[in-house]
């Protein structure tokens, strides 16, 4: 054993070996990802591409979705996700800012709240669905409606969004804030000039994460926004989200596979387009503000 | 001494002789962080138009003293300050005081240069526009004036809208001073402004402080005794006594360095302790 040790040490100390292991893991996970894309993504693209067309995207579903399109469902989805983001963004941003302000004054309370948020972020979405049903649909009397669905989704994505925004605000060095305070600058000014511009990448990241979760959500919406597939007239109407539509077509509607594939493809494409737009915005913003571009330079010094 | 007012002002173990003209009078100033007392019963008065150097070993409350002067201690929730500080007609520790206006009158420059991650121009223009209603051209003029004052104008006039973080350490520190003097303060507090800089940048900053001394009261915390001697008209020596910081002696620079009253000051300035 003892005479073996130097060999072991040489093995462990050999950086080439470690590098090899890292590369192996990296390629392995890439391969796994590729396999999943092939297994899941390819059929969706192959089967979905046949069924998708401009008409399909614009029309109302007929015969429970066996025929017709997904126009009304796209509209309902947009409304649900829109309400969800419009509620969750200001709330999470405000919470993240308050967290930063009270970090020094009530550190224990902040740790407690943060812990609660982490637990909430891990709660299965069906639980949020039941909560939304009990609170928004029943208690607040919103019934099965797009509004109730959007608000429930907002509750669901809030914990994650708060954490992402909080991290991005925490990345702003305190020295900046001290400098600003020592010059007698107002809190609002500090927020607008120092904190928010720095938090912008985090904000866009939070939007992408929030959107992704909101679009993909099925369970929480089944109980809250319902699955009426007609054109929604107002936010108080029940509306069927795209993911709910895919679920319904595959599970409950015999002969709906073709539409299911096409709807799934529409869902994937929408997410791709939104993510691309958000990332492009981020890229443009980072190039336009001089400070952001220089941040990496400032760090490397 | 430029003005004789502070010549006979000194302070010893809480006993203080007031000079005829002083811009800053501190009485029975004590500061606690939570349970720990960091400054105990500081009495001092500083005469007008001078550079005051605060010296002493680490942890003796120099920086804390400096930050009470523009109420930055408010940022620490556990910090408690008692006593009184008068600056002209202003009672600084008054709870109802408009702190933002106080901080405009008493600016601060930190140990590590901390320009905002904005453009060079915005670094000065933002504080200006928040404190005063100014036209765009007035702001541009005041920005130029401040940059000229710190000798930065020629170096940066072609890249005013580039990020301030691209400047060198010494330039960043001068920008921080410019940002401060653009607000036309009465007092500028400098917390070891050169300790993060190389000797050449230090020389530039020292020259700048010499230039500014006729227009502002400057209070400089420094660990560098030679620097204190070079720059200051008055020196205040802080020391840790029984676990908390105290001002053990203050007075004209020459007297503190050549003929100190306190044995600890004598040992410190001659390099025997500290």
Percent range for helical residues of chain A?
over 70%
**Main beta sheet of chain A, described?**
2 strands, antiparallel
Overall number of strands of chain A: 2
Q: How many strands, what sense, and barrel or not for the largest sheet of chain B?
A: 8 strands, mixed
Could you tell me the strand content of chain B as a percent range? 25-35%
The CATH topology of chain A corresponds to MetI-like fold
**Radius of gyration of chain B (Å):** 19 Å
Shape of chain A: globular
Order of helices and strands of chain B: EEEEEHEEHEHHHHEHEHEEHH
> Which CATH architecture of chain A is right?
Orthogonal Bundle
Q: What order do the helices and strands of chain A follow? A: HHHEEHHHHHHHHHH
Distance between the termini of chain A: 47 Å
User: Could you give me the name of the CATH homologous superfamily of chain A?
Assistant: MetI-like
| Structural domains of chain A: how many | 1
Flag low-confidence runs of chain B: 1-20
Question: What does this entry look like structurally?
Answer:
The complex is a heterodimer of chains A (301) and B (274). Chain A is mainly alpha-helical. Chain A has one domain: Orthogonal Bundle (MetI-like fold). Chain A has 13 helices and two strands. Chain A has helices spanning 5-13, 15-51, 54-58, 71-102, 107-121, 125-139, 146-170, 174-182, 187-216, 219-222, 242-252, 257-288, 290-300, and strands at 61-62, 67-68. A two-stranded antiparallel ribbon of chain A has the order 1-2. In chain A, helix 4 (71-102) packs parallel to helix 7, helix 4 runs antiparallel to helix 9 (187-216) and helix 7 packs across helix 9 (187-216). Residues 290-301 of chain A have low confidence and may be disordered. Chain B is an alpha/beta fold and 274 residues long. Chain B is built from ten helices and twelve strands. Chain B has helices at residues 62-69, 99-105, 120-131, 136-149, 153-156, 169-181, 199-212, 225-231, 253-258, 263-269; strands at 11-12, 15-16, 24-33, 36-46, 51-55, 79-87, 90-91, 106-109, 187-191, 217-221, 234-241, 244-252. Chain B has an eight-stranded mixed sheet with strand order 2-1-12-11-5-10-9-8, sandwiched between helices. In chain B, strands 4-3-6-7 form a four-stranded antiparallel sheet, with helices on one face. In chain B, helix 3 (120-131) packs across helix 4, helix 3 packs parallel to helix 6 and helix 4 (136-149) crosses helix 6 (169-181). Chain B is globular, with a radius of gyration of 19 Å. At the A-B interface, helix 8, helix 9 and helix 13 of A face helix 2, helix 3 and helix 6 of B.
